[in-house]
From TrEMBL:
Protein name: Plastocyanin-like domain-containing protein
Lineage of producing organism: Eukaryota, Viridiplantae, Streptophyta, Embryophyta, Tracheophyta
Top-level division of the source organism's lineage: Eukaryota
InterPro entries the UniProt entry points to: Cu-oxidase-like_N, Cu-oxidase_fam, Cupredoxin, CuRO_1_LCC
Keyword Signal: yes
Coiled-coil region(s): none
Length: 206
């Protein structure tokens, strides 16, 4: 019962939330290969919309989100919305072979979920094999329209997504979002690390 309480509270929030000011945020993520030139070499990687990091998702608390993922890569792929609570939509969480079958090459799938009762700086990333090393981006949930930030309103926001590479592979990445207010600098940071078989052979981090 104790474990059920947060879920019940969330459910209550979901049911009473005003829907009038919620918007539908629609994105299309095309997963495919792109060339990058870094560390004195050109490499083909898999990325979203030809961008590394991938596109930022920017929504307001309570919005509905629909992301159509078109898989033009030769690999199975899924996307995990890291930190999104997925209230009532566990099937949209993204772990490959856990909450869904992967999106196979030349097919597509639309993730649909809402972000009620949540604000903050999150991120999304592939949740299938090594693709998570290059298939990622920021997921920013701002306060509901008309609501204040829980800290002094920033004058400017600068999402910074950090990626680490050794010579021939990408080993880790993190998302750092700096919110610059007149009085304070706050940031949130998430990171993950993947093993790199060439790390020992003198790769340079950047
Ligand atoms: C790709 O995903 C399908 C299910 O969607 C699965 O049957 C198949 O084994 C997967 N292929 C690989 C190489 O993991």
């Amino acid at each position: 019962m104790v474990q059920l309480l947060p879920a019940l509270v969330a459910l209550a929030l979901l049911l009473v939330r005003p829907v009038a000011d919620a918007a539908m945020a629609k994105y299309t993520f095309t997963v495919g290969s792109m060339q990058i030139s870094q560390l004195c070499s050109s490499t083909s990687i898999i990325a979203v919309n030809g961008q590394l990091p991938g596109p930022s998702i920017e929504v307001n608390e309570g919005d509905d989100v629909a992301v159509k993922v078109v898989n033009n890569s030769p690999y199975n792929v899924t996307i995990h919305w890291h930190g999104v609570l997925q209230l009532m939509t566990p099937w949209a969480d993204g772990p490959s072979m856990v909450t869904q079958c992967p999106i196979q090459p030349s097919s597509s799938y639309t993730y649909r979920f809402s972000v009620p009762g949540q604000e903050g700086t999150l991120w999304w990333h592939a949740h299938s094999s090594f693709l998570r090393a290059t298939v990622y981006g920021a997921f920013i949930i701002r306060p509901r329209r008309g609501n204040a930030y829980p800290f002094p309103a920033p004058d400017k926001e600068v999402p910074i997504v950090l990626g680490n590479r050794c010579r021939s592979c990408i080993v880790s990445h993190s998302l750092l979002v700096i919110e610059d207010t007149k009085k304070s600098l706050t940031f949130s940071c998430l990171w993950m690390r993947l093993s790199c078989h060439e790390q020992a052979s003198g790769g340079t981090a950047m």
